[in-house]
C-alpha cells in the first residue's frame, strides 16, 4: 500500500472508491450529482490517496483553512490502518493545527480520531439531513 498525492488522472478511481463507500455506509449521505466536484471542493489545497495494485483504497483532502475533508477508506481495505496513514500524510505536509468535523453517525471514525488523540471541541447541527431524516449532529475536532 502506498499513500501519495492525488493527481487528475486518479479521479475516475477515486469516484469508484467513493461509490463503494457510499453503497456500504451512505457516505456521503446523498450521492453528489458531480462526485468529482464533491471530491474537489473549491477550498481544497491538496488531496492524498492510498493505492494498491492500481486501485484507490482511501482518500483524504485538506482545505485552505486546515480542515480535513473527504476522508474515506473502501470497505474491502478497512482494518489496515489506512485512515491513520492518510491522516499522517496530511500532518506531515501541513504544519500547525488541523481540524475536522464528523457526523455523530460515524462511530468508527470518531473512535479512530479519539484513539489518535484528536480532541472534540464542540458540536453543531449540519444543514444536511442524516440517515434518520434530521439535521446531522456534527462533532468538531482539533488534532493533538
Automatic annotation (TrEMBL):
InterPro entries to which the protein is assigned, alphabetical: Acyl_CoA_acyltransferase, Bact_Acetyltransf, GNAT_dom
Domain of life: Bacteria
PROSITE patterns recorded: GNAT
Residues covered by the N-acetyltransferase domain: 1-144
EC number of this enzyme: 2.3.1.-
Top EC category: transferase
This protein's UniProt keywords: Acyltransferase, Transferase
One GO molecular-function entry: acyltransferase activity
One Pfam family of this chain: Acetyltransf_10
Coiled-coil features, chain-numbered ranges: none
Name of the molecule in the record: GNAT family N-acetyltransferase
Amino acid at each position: 500500500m502506498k499513500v501519495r498525492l492525488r493527481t487528475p488522472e486518479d479521479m475516475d478511481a477515486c469516484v469508484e472508491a467513493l461509490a463503494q463507500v457510499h453503497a456500504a455506509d451512505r457516505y456521503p449521505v446523498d450521492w453528489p450529482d458531480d462526485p468529482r466536484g464533491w471530491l474537489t471542493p473549491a477550498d481544497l489545497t491538496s488531496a492524498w490517496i492510498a493505492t494498491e495494485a492500481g486501485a484507490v483504497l482511501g482518500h483524504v483532502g485538506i482545505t485552505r483553512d486546515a480542515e480535513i475533508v473527504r476522508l474515506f477508506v473502501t470497505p474491502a481495505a478497512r482494518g489496515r490502518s489506512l485512515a491513520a496513514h492518510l491522516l499522517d500524510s496530511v500532518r506531515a505536509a501541513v504544519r500547525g493545527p488541523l481540524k475536522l468535523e464528523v457526523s455523530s453517525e460515524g462511530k468508527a471514525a470518531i473512535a479512530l480520531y479519539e484513539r489518535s488523540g484528536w480532541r472534540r471541541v464542540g458540536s453543531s447541527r449540519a444543514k444536511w439531513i442524516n440517515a434518520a431524516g434530521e439535521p446531522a449532529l456534527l462533532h468538531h475536532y482539533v488534532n493533538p
